[in-house]
Amino acid sequence: MKIFNSMTMKKEDFVPIEEGKVKMYACGPTVYNYIHVGNARPIIMFDVLRRYLEYRGYEVTFVQNFTDVDDKIIKRANEEGASSKEISEKYIAEYLVDIKGLGVRPATIHPKATENIDEIIKIVETLIEKGYAYEVNGDVYYRTTKFASYGKLSHQPLEELQAGARIDVADVKENPMDFALWKAAKPGEPYWESPWGQGRPGWHIECSAMSGRYLGKTIDIHCGGQDLIFPHHENEIAQSEAANGCKFVNYWMHNGFISVDNKKMSKSLGNFFTVREAAEAYSYDAIRMFMLMSHYRSPLNYSGEILVQAQNALERLATAKSNLEFFKKNGVDGSMSESESEFAVSLERFRERFIEVMDDDLNTADAVAVVFELVREINAAVSPSANPTKALAEACDKLFSELADVLGLPISKEEDSLETEIEELIEQRQAARKAKNFAEADRLRDLLKERGIILKDTPQGVKWERA
Predict the structure, then answer these.
(1) How far apart are CA 196 and CA 185, in angstroms?
(2) Are residues 86 and 233 in the same domain?
(3) What whole-number distance in Å separates Cα of residue 436 and Cα of residue 92?
(4) Distance (Å, rounded) from C-alpha 330 to C-alpha 458?
(5) For the segment 414-457, what is each residue's pLDDT rounded down to a tens digit?
(6) Each residue of 170-180: b (16+ CB within 10 Å) or e?
(7) Cβ atoms of 133 and 174 closer than 8 Å
């Protein structure tokens, strides 16, 4: 497998620190609002990375944090007359609703910054002892000029980074580029006791502490949005490598921006759509498909038209899955014919091609194309005119479901907990029709219609769909 490493700016063979295991960290949300569609891209794409690594046999420990203490959270709390904890807990819960809808598996560990204050203080103390940090009036700053390779991830020397840095110009700093590791408490803000007085951690130090605590000093993969390269990830490197005296991350992966009218989607520009809003208008599934149809490093332009295209693509997959389910139940009994066996064996080329493109820096766009090519061949071989065996339908469904699961593609509507009941009502209606009890058959059809279920008579039997 090859991964494009943002540090070296080239594709590299992936070699884990420990054979068969992967330690992976992704920067999670600052929980003061609903996540927007731009936030969803790294969440979805690196969920696929984790799924694919597991598919290839790796044991993955995936850590994704929650930043639950931050200036934005404090501001939102003041606006709503609530505590910072109430705000963060509210939006953590909303985040979990959204990622479940998007088909994203929960991380192995979802640590919160506020649960790691002791680890944060220890790192800050180490940095002060080593001369990489200094305290001024209860604030602690990182001394960027002390870290010789500062700027190596963003590929810019220290003096050229000032314009893009999130810095507070303060006379107390030794250098304008120095950034806060610990902030002295202001009236009305949450705080913790520390060697420098009451205060709270800076944003960057939180991730250094959490990745170190749960994954160790050196990790395999660190991922996130392109906008985090500087200053967040650059500062994580400076903190972690200075404190631990060793390499922090072996592979850095960053996804491209999502734009609206060719401008980056962001809360600060006010041109964002929350995942919740987009899901209500289209669907969570359509959002996931929209992301997968492009390579994770490519820029994406958000539009309703593209989400409709994604939804239509998913419908084609769902139809193929439904047909396979039908023939698994109603196909010809017995072993596959010679020609069916040859066809089933030939499908292996799709698995090989899928692995080939996914091994090439997680190319989900080509992987989705492989799945659709597979579906086209399956549709031709498993159809009423082909009179397929149940065994062939099983073999086709196994591969189709396997590849779809790696991508997290929702090919079947498993969310419908009433599916079994619906199938039973349809069987009752069929039995009523067979018994020429048309009044009962009509009653059952009307009952299904009230539940939003439309029946269709097809050559393969009665099918149903939601209105």
Answers:
(1) 10
(2) yes
(3) 55
(4) 14
(5) 444 456 667 777 888 887 887 788 888 888 888 888 767 888 87
(6) eeebeeebbbb
(7) no
Whether residue 224 sits in one domain with residue 122: yes
Would residue 30 count as lying in a domain?
Answer: yes
Examine residue 306 and state whether it is found in any structural domain, yes or no: no
Burial class (CB in 10 A: 0-12, 13-18, 19+), 345: exposed
Gyration radius of the chain over CA positions: 27
Residue 274's Cβ-side half-sphere holds a number of Cα atoms within 13 Å equal to 13
- Taking the alpha carbons at both ends of the chain, their separation in whole angstroms is 44
Packed helices 438-450 and 419-434: angle between N→C axes, nearest 10 degrees: 160
Q: Are residues 354 and 391 in the same domain?
A: yes
Residue 278 near residue 61, CB atoms below 8 Å: no
Residue 319's CATH number = 1.20.120.640
**Structural domain harbouring 54:** 2-130+204-255
In a domain, 451, yes or no: yes
The answer to whether the beta carbons of residues 428 and 442 sit under 8 Å apart is no
CB 70 within 8 A of CB 384: no
Position 83 in a domain:
yes
Give the DSSP letter string of 271-340. Answer: ---BHHHHHHHT-HHHHHHHHHTS-TTS-EE--HHHHHHHHHHHHHHHHHHHHHHHHHHHSB-SSPPHHH
List pLDDT tens digits, range 363-402: 999 999 999 999 999 999 999 999 999 999 999 999 999 9
Same domain assignment for residues 21 and 71: yes
Domain count, the chain: 3
Tell me the C-alpha to C-alpha distance, in Å, between residue 169 and each of 137, 175, 177: 16, 9, 9
Model pLDDT for residues 57-106, shown as the tens digit of each residue: 999 999 999 999 999 999 999 999 999 999 999 999 999 999 999 999 99
Beta-sheet pairing, 10-13 with 21-26? unpaired
Give yes or no: residues 78 and 110 share one domain.
yes
- Do residues 442 and 369 share a domain? no
